[in-house]
Amino acid sequence: MGKFLPSLTENFAETLACDYSEAMIKSAKFYNKGLKCLNFETCNLEDNPPKGHPYDFGLCVNVVITQNINKREQIWKNIIQSINENGHLILVLPSLESALYSKSRLVEWNIRNGLHAKECLKKGFETSDKKGKKIARGGIIKCGGIPTKHYLKEEIISTTNRFNLKTISIQRIEYSWDTEFIKPPRWMKDPLPWDWLVLLQK
Asked: For residue 143, what is the domain's CATH number?
């Protein structure tokens, strides 16, 4: 959260930084104590929008990612409620296309290491968790061991249309393969994995 605050406070008369984690808020306060016109709030968007809303601009990085669809719907509603009419919203969302693509690169890695086809797929694409429950349903894929909602590009468009938001642009934020694998091989280069960067207007 804290890395964006200097830029935001430079460009807006007032900035409110929100997170559901008190520890994250405490850390952000410590590292940004020299910034002016900056307020902090511990806020769980599954319950309520931030206090003092609405605002002209919102930035949400990996916020709408809970696996629970009802909670996710409420987060969408509370985020939108916190933005002024004609205001803008930037979202960073995990890409489902990228997650599946990364798994296909793992299969390729296994093939290059001489594994048989069946074993390559088994080690590359998980189809169920330890309890036998199917995964990847509805775009839910584990990220750092946590079931996380991932989005198709077209899904972002249809979802934001449903909430009467204008989609201005959807772009990729690319990352190195180190974010996906431990010690990826040198031959694993472009195309790189990515998240979606979404610019919306209410």
From this structure: 3.40.50
Whether 193 maps to a domain, the answer reads yes
Percentage of the chain beyond pLDDT 90 is: 75
DSSP 141-192: EEETTEEEE-B-HHHHHHHHHHTT-EEEEEEEEE--GGGTSSS--TT--SSP
Burial class (CB in 10 A: 0-12, 13-18, 19+), 19: buried
Which residues touch 4 (CB under 8 Å, ≥6 apart)?
A: 59, 61
Q: Is residue 145 part of a domain?
A: yes
198 and 81 in contact (C-beta within 8 Å)?
no
pLDDT in tens, 133-174: 555 678 998 888 899 999 999 999 999 999 999 999 999 999
Domain that holds residue 75: 43-201
What's phi and psi for 159, nearest 5 deg? -70, -45
Please give the span between the terminal C-alpha atoms of the chain, in angstroms, as a whole number. 23
CA dihedral sign of residues 62, 64, 65, 71: positive
Domain count, the chain: 1
CA distance 37 to 9: 7
- Tell me the per-residue pLDDT of 25-81, one tens digit each, with 9 for 90 and over: 999 999 998 899 999 999 999 999 998 889 999 999 999 999 999 999 999 999 999
